[in-house]
Amino acid sequence: MSRRLPVAVAAVVVAALVLPAAASAHGLVGKQDLPIPRWLFAWGAAMVLVLSFVALATLWPRPRMQELRERVVWAGIPRVLEVLCGAVGVAVFGIVVYAGLAGSQSPLENLAPTFVYVVFWVAVPFASLLLGDVFRAFNPWRAVARAVAWAAGRVMPAGALPEPLAYPVRLGRWPAAAGILVFAWVELVSVNRDDPSLLAILALAYAAVQLVGMSLYGIDPWLRNADPFGVFFGLLARVAPLRWRDRSLVVRRPLSGLPSLDPRAGTVALVCVAIGTTTFDGFSMGTLWNDVAPDLQQWFIDVGLSAQDALQLAFTIGLVGCVLAVYGLYRLGIAGMRTVGEGHDARELAGLFAHTLVPIAFAYLVAHYFSLLGYQGQALAYLVSDPLGDGSNLFGTAAATIDYGWISATGVWYVQVGALVVGHVAGLALAHDRALAVYRDPQAATRSQYWMLTVMVGFTSLGLWLLSASAQ
Amino acid sequence: MTELPIAHIGHWWTSLLYLAPVLLVVVWLAVQSWRQRRQDRTDR
């Protein structure tokens, strides 16, 4: 029976793919011109994962990714380049904040909302996937802190500056997780999410917190643990084949930077926040949430809240609920792994397998924000010429428009499905490799991954359901 | 009066189709585990 079941599922999927006309006759084809119903993509993706799992179990008997192998391709990167990147980061930060405060308060005319939500939040992770941790080079608060430290070292006599405090080990990456959750709240829940001046003020407040943190705990310890965007983008950059190490550029195999991720406190929370908040972004556009949210809002109005506060509270519950659901799904997989034995406790396993969630976080990000980057990202062409929305034309591109025809809705859907499948197969491969290193017996390692396979199929189906729901 | 989500089931019942692969995988893995345990007992 165990062999017949996947064969039967494969038959259904293959039949639908081979006979698209018949399949679409019963399908749910909406705005996208898809040859098969959207839910069948979830079945196909699950099949890909199951087949990948079987292939890994049979063809990958020893751990291969636990040792990081890197090759230096560019040693001795000029220090001036580092300074230049930092200066560019500070200048861009200044321009965005100024635009937010002094420019038009229309979100579509002002540079700040598009820069924050499209360039900073979406394009930087996309760039990190290919080029490594580019944000670190342009990080404006890091650049300012390093400049201040350099100047202080020149002015003050040696030893006059106090040593930074030791960063609390218990805090780990928790501040980063909390920061990303707060940012997601502003983006997805706050009714003032597009207010340019509010975004500018929040950016200044964020920079101030980072500068105080770095002055107390040291630049690098703070950036490694507590700068939410620095930590999150750095985490995603571990997927990349490039790594900027000290003042050299090294190459490595894609994904190979992830197994060396140290599972310090808050790491699982950070990745679950990233996946959960993206989940809520899709979920909040679907019919299920839009059926429930008004009732929830009304309930809060009935207990005395204003309509706006009630709406924000309802959405806050949805946002936190999605993060907890993602965390619960992951812990379910970990709890299942414990049943295999060998004395590993759940906390240890949760940390050891945390890096396997990073490709999923990336997949969700690509799936949910690819179209935003592809369409709204083009707005940058006119916004850089007219950042304040006051009619100026600094670079002669103020009349540029957004081309919505460069990729069709169907094309976007295939990119989304591809990202989800590739991301989850990558997560599965990382989990398999880690299991081989953790468990003494390869059979036990494979059995432990039954649970991770279920989690991955669950995340894939969830991702496709969310995309499907928001596309209707 | 607050309506239960079930009242809107016509809007989202197709969503259950996305749950089916997860359930199938769970069933398949449960059967695999059961066969493995039975095999282990037989070997002993």
Walkthrough of the structure:
The complex is a heterodimer of chains A (472) and B (44). Chain A is an all-alpha fold. In chain A, 67% of the residues lie in helices and 3% in strands. Chain A has 19 helices and 3 strands. Chain A has a 3-stranded antiparallel beta sheet with strand order 1-3-2, with no helix packed on it. The radius of gyration of chain A is 24 Å and the shape is globular. The two termini of chain A are 37 Å apart. Chain B is 73% helix and 0% strand. Chain B is mainly α and 44 residues long. Chain B starts with 8 loop residues before the first helix and ends with a helix. The model of chain B has no long low-confidence stretch (mean pLDDT 76). Chain B has 2 helices and no strands. At the A-B interface, α1, α3, α13 and α19 of A face α2 of B.
Percentage of residues in helical conformation of chain B: over 70%
Cα Rg of chain B: 19 Å
Reading the helices and strands of chain A in chain order gives HHHEHHHHHHHHEEHHHHHHHH
Number of strands of chain B: 0
**What order do the SSEs of chain B take from the amino end to the carboxyl end, as H and E?**
HH
- Mean of pLDDT of chain A: 88
Measured distance between first and last alpha carbons of chain A:
37 Å
**Share in β-strands of chain A:** under 5%
Query: What gyration radius of chain A follows from the Cα positions, in whole Å?
Result: 24 Å
Spatial strand arrangement across the major sheet of chain A:
1-3-2
Task: Work out the oligomeric state of the chains in this entry.
Answer: heterodimer
Anisotropy-based shape of chain B: rod-shaped
Number of DSSP helical runs of chain A: 19
What's the number of helices of chain B?
Answer: 2
